[in-house]
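Reagents: none. Just compute today. Flagellar basal-body rod protein FlgG.
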Amino acid sequence: MIRALYTAASGMSAQQMNLDTIANNLANSATTGFKQLRLQFQDMVYQNMVTPGAAQSQSTVSAGLQIGLGTKSAATEVIMSQGPLNQTSNPLDVAIEGSGFFQVQRPDGTIAYTRAGQFHLNSQGTIVTTDGDPLVPSITIPPNATAVTITQYGVVNATLPGQKNPSQLGQLQLAMFPNAGGLESMGSNLLAATLSSGDPVLGNPGGTEGLGTLQQGYLENSNVDVVTEFVQMVLAQRAYESNSKVIKAADDMYSQVNNMTR
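Predicted 3D structure written out:
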């Protein structure tokens, strides 16, 4: 019965973390470029009462007798499916349709990656994120430039005074990873490369590397399906309740044992 208490408690702890993950997904259902997280579980060590394949007289045990000791949270998987595109008509709003991440330079000089294309201009005319981190490679738009356009292949053009034809101001690059699910979430819509994600592969949008194309005047919404998250929340709650009933049943059995001496 002590074993049942700890086993059920591990299930309650795992479902609590599952609920925390679901809550984070729902909280970010309106966050631009947010990617859904999914908690993964694995069973814990087993107690072998009879080892499978053990010798027994003239034969071997075919199945054995094992008792599981519960579950634990193993990993949070990032679901990298495409989020729906939302038209904003803002020339500095850019969505990635397909694979890839924008590169931004953090204040400490490191490179971070994001799917959120809510860009702005700082006081020097450089294209930056909402937190002021510049894009990599850096692109500066002159203050007198008009009709700024970003093609699906990442070419930034603008019309300057005295010119009939647009001038090319720069080229946006994207990064992709062998295992994008291994990126580390940093907050502020930013991701960091890890040993699990592998090194970034850089290229122009729509190029031979397999990177997606850009859509100017659009933003990629979160890929969180609110209905699915509510279903998962109900399942997590029911699993939590089931484990709590196991604990109550084990406690009642203890109570019966204690009352036997009265």
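The two ends are 21 Å apart (CA to CA).
Action item: order primers for follow-up constructs.
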